[in-house]
Amino acid sequence: MGDAVIKSIAGAWPGTAVAALRYAIGAIGLGTLLFLKEGRKGFALPMPKVQLLRGFSVALATICFFSAIFLMPLADATAIGFTSPMITVIFSAIFLNERTRATKWLAIVIAFGGVLLIMRPNVAELGWVALLPLVAAMCMALVMMGNRVVAGAGSPLLMQFLVASVAMPFILSAAFIGHFSGVPALHIGVPDWTIIARCMLVAVTASCAHWLIFMATTRASAAEIAPMTYVQLLIAIGLGIILFGDWPDLTSLAGAGIIIASGLILWRGSR
């Protein structure tokens, strides 16, 4: 739902500015909650280099994905974003030396077949800018790796605050560069109050969503929870049709179905 709200801002304000405002609101809100719950001692910076990786990756992922949903059908961008678990498997094998079974490699190959199906018409229409959601998925895979490394180094609230606050300088820099680049689409004017309200709504819903996922993982395994996230794709398709008139073609639906199937194969192999 938050992605649909972001897409509704397309053309009214640059994606970099939307990302900056969304994370500024999120960082302030999470910082306030952290202070009320844990006091000054709650503000720590464990593993600074990993926190820098998490923040930079989230910043780049957010800018790329927000730009993608401004330019592409919501369902297509969301479907390509679901390759993040498969990319995480690849990165884990390369950088963390984690053993990967043949089933996982099969799921990865199938998933990227689905991505190619979805991207084919978008690349033809938009050019290489259609790669934006794939870059966002790769960045989120780096975030997942970072999350594994810092797990247990602080409270979940601290980890949420750190990723938002560390991402802020990168996103603000991108917004600043875009504003002075001379590109009209990146010029940051004074936003309408409805844009501020929508960014606030997205900041709240995204923070609540992250917290709900964390609470779920304390009660069940990540492998059991992962398939539930595919509801997001169904909602993205529905909202895309209702709000923006983006009817997915059979090729896009087939690609999305293949990505979901690969995710279920990955989930089944991890049980």
TrEMBL record:
Keyword terms: Membrane, Transmembrane, Transmembrane helix
Keyword set includes Transmembrane helix: yes
Transmembrane residue ranges: 12-36, 52-71, 77-96, 103-120, 126-145, 157-181, 193-213, 225-244, 250-267
Residue intervals of the EamA domain: 5-119, 128-266
One GO cellular component term: membrane
Any Pfam family hit: EamA
UniProt superkingdom: Bacteria
Entry annotated with the keyword Transmembrane: yes
InterPro entries xrefs: EamA_dom, EmrE-like
Record's protein name: DMT family transporter
Highest classification ranks of the organism: Bacteria, Pseudomonadati, Pseudomonadota, Alphaproteobacteria, Sphingomonadales
